[in-house]
Structure to design on (144 residues):
């Protein structure tokens, strides 16, 4: 599969898979100057790129495990979704869950993007749904 990537600035970095079997491609901050992400603060960080996701797929933006486990920096929306018809700049919504400020530098790896197939369902209204053993139980209804 090939994903077309448009650099919105010549200095922007293309997504990069660190190893041959990496599921995600690193996304890089594109900043004019370092930005401090204060404790509990959320910021939208530009990447300087836009992508062309093929129809039938989505780009899913996940946190980088090292940023979250070492520094408490993760995505404020848990998982970002890049739709196949979106052509704007990819931006990453970060949040600082730590008690310490964190400095984000230009070119820093801030998230990872995974391209996955997406089923596009038709939603049909109905008066009844099929029965299951679980039924309407939720939020802990299946035990610990």
């Amino acid at each position: 599969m090939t994903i077309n990537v448009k650099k919105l600035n010549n200095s922007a970095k293309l997504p990069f898979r660190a190893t041959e079997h990496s599921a995600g491609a690193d996304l890089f901050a594109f900043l004019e100057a370092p930005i401090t992400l204060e404790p509990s603060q959320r910021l939208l960080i530009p990447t300087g790129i836009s992508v062309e996701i093929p129809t039938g797929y989505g780009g899913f933006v996940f946190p980088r495990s090292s940023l979250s486990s070492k520094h408490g920096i993760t995505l404020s929306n848990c998982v970002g979704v890049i739709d196949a018809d979106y052509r704007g700049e990819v931006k990453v919504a970060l949040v600082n869950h730590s008690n310490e400020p964190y400095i984000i530098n230009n070119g820093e790896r801030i998230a990872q993007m995974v391209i996955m197939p997406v089923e596009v369902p038709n939603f049909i209204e109905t008066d009844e749904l099929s029965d299951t053993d679980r039924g309407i139980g939720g939020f802990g209804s299946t035990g610990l």
